[in-house]
């Protein structure tokens, strides 16, 4: 393994010590491996892909008072310390800055392939069985309700319905997780996402069935 990648792994592991289980080193490791798998099917700069995957959640604004610039600052400082050249630093920072689901409205029109790959990998780790586990872990971390029976959330809800179901962990499937398969950039990403999407639909069916004991 390339020495810069090895150093980056050590740096990220140490930085993310004690992180919430859905956003910890193991999330990074899965995204890194998924990124490498997708990268095999695309013509791309593998080092940019790997560095971006490893650094993409180094300082998630959710856990840092909404600070959107901290991750860029920490990553630049680290990469400069490793003597990574400026062009590559800028490519990696571009991925980190534009990867998020939240920012999809403001995303640049043409995405570099390295961003497409790491974004697919990050989104794939949000769905399927791992997605279910991460989402309930995050909901527990926030002390949210799992579900509220007054309203079964669904895609395309009215604003009022949305408000009522908002804040439950099950609702997160409808506001985000079930939308991800159609946002995949790469063919390989689409393939992996499909199986995981279908698993979530089955999970939700079973969840409602078990909730409604009759
Ligand atoms: P992004 O940075 O792409 O917007 P997030 O970091 O917000 O994505 O979300 C990553 C994962 O954290 C989600 O896929 C989900 O598992 C969990 N998560 C985020 N927000 C919530 C929420 N409100 N309820 C439950 N899980 C959540
Ligand atoms: Ni991530």
Word description of this protein:
This protein is an all-alpha fold and 214 residues long. It folds into two domains: 1-101, HD-domain/PDEase-like (Cyclin A, domain 1), CATH 1.10.472; 126-214, Methane Monooxygenase Hydroxylase, Chain G, domain 1 (Up-down Bundle), CATH 1.20.58. 60% of the residues lie in helices and 0% in strands. It contains ten helices and no strands. Helix 2 packs across helix 6 (113-124). The longest helix is centred in the last third of the chain and has 25 residues, at 187-211. The radius of gyration is 18 Å and the shape is globular. The chain starts with a helix and ends with a helix. The relative contact order is 0.12. The mean pLDDT is 91. Adenosine-5'-diphosphate is lined by residues 22, 60, 62, 100-102, 126, 134-135, 138-139, 169, 172.
Helix content: 55-70%
Small molecules (ligands, ions, cofactors) in the structure: adenosine-5'-diphosphate, nickel (II) ion
Can you tell me the CATH architecture of the largest domain? Orthogonal Bundle
Per CATH, the superfamily of the largest domain is HD-domain/PDEase-like
Low-confidence stretches: none
| Beta strand count | 0
Radius of gyration: 18 Å
Q: What is the fold-level CATH name, i.e. the topology of the largest domain? A: Cyclin A, domain 1
Category from helices, strands and their pairing: mainly alpha
Strand content: under 5%
Total helical elements: 10
Can you summarize the main beta sheet?
none
CATH C-level class of the largest domain is Mainly Alpha
Domain HD: 24-127
Protein name: HD domain-containing protein
Organism: Chryseobacterium kimseyorum
Pfam families: HD (PF01966)
